[in-house]
Model the fold of this input.
Amino acid sequence: MKEIPKYSNCFVCGDNNKHGLQAKFFYDGENAITEIVAGKEMEGYQGIYHGGIISALLDEIMIKAVLAIDKFVVTAEMTVRYILPVRTGEKIRFTGTIRKTNGKIYYTQGEAMNEKQEVVAKATGKYIEVEESFRKELMNSIE
Done:
């Protein structure tokens, strides 16, 4: 598996962002993958990981699936379905895949699964490939 490029100050994947999640993303040739341990500092309720953080990770895993094939996209829309609560301390595996493309539009799906192999959340996303001038600006962020 190869590591997917990142921006070091990104809230989700940036290893220089001390307030962020510092998740590392990998590509296996078909899926973007990351694993995180749901930290107590990101609680929504006592002992429960914040749903907004799960949503951010699902967005990132889906966009990384597209970035892994060297396409720079931005999020156009995303739908998240929360299935089970994520307890702090749990290890969660996120996977993201491109379902289909239509020109510069990428349709993706993401999934979060706990160590018991239970799906805790799912998402679908629509990502738009950026114009060349904006791509150059975004590439300044990527390492």
Q: What stands out?
A: The two ends are 17 Å apart (CA to CA). The mean pLDDT is 93.
